[in-house]
Write a structure and sequence with these properties.
The protein contains 10 helices and 8 strands. The protein is an alpha/beta fold.
Length: about 250
């Protein structure tokens, strides 16, 4: 950046900045919240973490510990938690089957969308969080198709290349996972079938109902008015206006 600014001042380059956007990473603080320093005796040696928990554990934890641009304190408990997450993924090999529940398929496509977008925006912590949600759902379902598991591994290889490569090979692949094309999501499958719709009366929350994600205002109004608690607040009142935000809320102005 310094050299670009110097060359710009000399009239040799057209722009004062060498890039359109710059993101500064935050500091990794010690567990006591202070800056790591030999004088404080609170320095974490990454070689020791790799030796005890593995390189992939360290990589994933560094991505997961917090927003990229913020300073976050180190947590050994967090490292252990990530290690357990990786062990879950390793054990998922035993759950590979021909079929899987539809909710797992839907969660996979939501994961593809979120991880893709989060990597572009350098939101690595929320990308890992979404992958954790998917793995938990696969584990709870008791089975996952080989295709879904392989697609997940392609995403996860960005964060844990050693583990992903090892499982990829165990699934019968002769070529490296790194040459696989990045997965694409189905816009149809990333949409929720149902949503929790908050019901307000004069802006105050009076109830919540589960409705179809694409429910019409007319149908949402009928269901909302049928809610027992909402009925009490609408009783003997004149509804002046209904404010409906699809999938977000419905508000009765009385």
């Amino acid at each position: 950046r310094f050299w670009n600014k110097f060359l710009h001042d000399q009239g040799h380059v057209p722009t004062s900045e060498p890039y359109q956007k710059r993101t500064s990473q935050g500091l990794i603080l010690a567990e006591d919240g202070r800056k790591m320093s030999k004088s404080f005796g609170n320095v974490i040696n990454p070689d020791e973490i790799v030796e005890q928990y593995g390189a992939d554990t360290l990589r994933v934890y560094l991505m997961f510990m917090g927003p990229f641009s913020e300073s976050i304190p180190w947590s050994t408990k967090g490292v252990v938690g990530v290690r357990r997450f990786l062990e879950k993924i390793w054990n998922m090999q035993e759950k590979v089957a021909k079929n899987e529940p539809e909710e797992v398929t839907r969660e996979l496509h939501k994961t593809i969308k979120k991880v893709t977008e989060d990597i572009e925006e350098m939101k690595y912590n929320t990308a890992v969080s979404q992958m954790m949600i998917l793995v938990n759902k696969m584990q709870a379902a008791g089975s996952v198709s080989k295709k879904t598991f392989e697609t997940f591994l392609i995403l996860f290889a960005t964060f844990a290349p050693h583990l992903a490569e090892e499982i990829w090979s165990a699934l019968g692949h002769k070529k490296s996972i790194t040459i696989e094309a990045w997965p694409k999501f189905s816009s149809k499958l990333v949409k929720d079938e149902t949503v929790q719709l908050p019901i307000q009366v004069n802006g105050k929350l009076r109830g919540t109902i589960e409705v179809a994600a694409d429910i019409s205002e007319k149908d949402a109004t009928k269901l909302a008015q049928a809610d027992e608690n909402v009925k009490k607040h609408l009783e003997d009142q004149k509804i002046k206006k209904v404010i409906y935000v699809p999938g977000r809320l419905i508000n009765f102005v009385i």
